Every structure is written in structure tokens, then in C-alpha cells.
Amino acid sequence: EVVIAEQRELTGLAADAVERLVREEPSAVLGLATGSTPMPVYDELVRRHREEGLSFAGARGFLLDEYVGLSRDHPQRYRRVISQEIVERVDWPEEQVLGPDGLAEDLPEACACYEQSIAEAGGIDLQLLGIGADGHVAFNEPGSSLASRTRVKSLTAQTREDNARFFDSPEEVPVHCLTQGLGTISEARHLVLLATGEHKAPAVRQLVEGAISARWPATVLQLHPHVTVLVDEAAASGL
Length: 239
Ligand code: GLP
Fold this sequence. Notes:
The protein is of the alpha/beta class. It has one domain: Rossmann fold, CATH 3.40.50. It contains seven helices and ten strands. It has helices at residues 7-24, 39-52, 78-85, 107-120, 157-163, 182-186, 201-209; strands at residues 2-4, 29-32, 60-63, 65-67, 97-98, 126-129, 151-154, 176-179, 190-195, 227-231. Strands 1-10-9-6-2-3-5 form a seven-stranded parallel sheet, covered by helices on one side. The chain has a three-stranded antiparallel sheet with strand order 4-8-7. Strand 9 (190-195), helix 7 and strand 10 form a beta-alpha-beta unit. Helix 1 (7-24) packs across helix 2 (39-52). The protein starts with a strand and ends in an 8-residue tail after the last strand. The active site is at 65 (proton acceptor), 134 (for ring-opening step), 136 (proton acceptor), 141 (for ring-opening step). Its EC number is 3.5.99.6. This is Glucosamine-6-phosphate deaminase. It is an enzyme of class 3 (hydrolase).
């Protein structure tokens, strides 16, 4: 399903999907995305928590990805971003939200552990997703295997450049990351992907209409039985 609407409406629809799930199943497993696009959704969920009693007390959360090597309190560490944007603003116990451990000594082991934690939680019920201008999802850059699992990756020069705006200097952007694989992400029962802005138009076009290919990692979503793509006019302009 592809919905083309204004930002406010998209935010509401994504929040509705989360709310419906959490109200129906208080121990739901949510997949959390970073990047700037999903942030209004977290704000809206916080509002619904404060004003409408939406509770995350029993929910569990799993992040999509994490930078390697950022200290625990680094403002761009994704686990910390997620705490600040949602977890600590609602009634969600911190220990119920996990991310891949970018500070682990044995990174491949940390990736395997992470996969196991997701499996033990019973898999992800609803996964929020953004998309990179080059069609990456999480940190699965072009060329990623469509069946890939959580693993260590190098960021492309493009993504490091795109994300440099969040850091004091471009050199500070980590070179490596841990990311759920496209195979991992595909196992979530419902995928909700948000994209806004004209720079996302080529990626959205490939996602919706392109041939399934590792060249555009997001095209793997075409194989999934339950995907909601939420885009504004600008991001939909290539369709
Ligand atoms: C980052 C994240 C992705 C995100 C993408 C787009 O690299 N790892 O999960 O979807 O960039 O970010 P934004 O929403 O800021 O455009």
C-alpha cells in the first residue's frame, strides 16, 4: 500500500499503526528507526502517551542499526537518540529497548546475539523504516544481499556525507556500523516506511516501481506481504 499525503497526515498514519498494535497487544515488539524522517512520529507518540494514555510499559523495542565505536553518551549513538526521542519521554522501561552493540569487543558475536534477542522476543511486529537517497534501508547500502542478516558494514562516502550534519565535523562520522540485514528486516510482520522530500524521489520510485535488486536495497520490500509506504508529494514525484 502506498499513501501519498502531507507530512502531518503521514505522521498520524504511522502513529496510528503503532498505537493500534500497542493497544491491542501491550507486549508488542516494535522496530525503531533513526534518521530525521521518523522523529515527528515519535513526537506524536509522546503526545498520545501524555494526552491519551498510550502506554509502552509492556512493549519491547529493537533498533535497526548502530554506529560502531561511539561512546555510550555520544549524542549520535542511535540507542541514545532513541532514548531521547521516545523511550525516556514515555513509560517505556529502558531495558526493554535494545540496539546492536556498537561498543562490543567482538562485533560479529554482538550481531549474532542481537539476532537471537529478536528471535527470542518472537520477532518484530511492526518495523518503522526510513530510506536513504541511494535506496538504503537501515545501513544496508547498495550491493547488500537481499537475504543479509545483522552484520558489520562500512558506510559509503555518500551516507557519511549525508549524516555529517549530525556531527561536529565530517571526520567524526564513524566508518563502520552494525545493521540488521535485509533478510532480518523482511521478517518483521508489518513494515511502515516513511519518506519525505524531493531528494528521496528516485529511491521511492525504485522502491515502488523498480526491479528488485541489491542495487536499490529497498526494493526487497516488494517481496513482503504487508508494507505501508507513506510518502509526501515531493518524495512521490517520480512515481
Ligand atoms: C540513515 C539511517 C537510516 C535512515 C536514513 C535516512 O543512514 N541509518 O535508517 O533511513 O539514514 O535518513 P533521513 O530520514 O534523515 O533522511
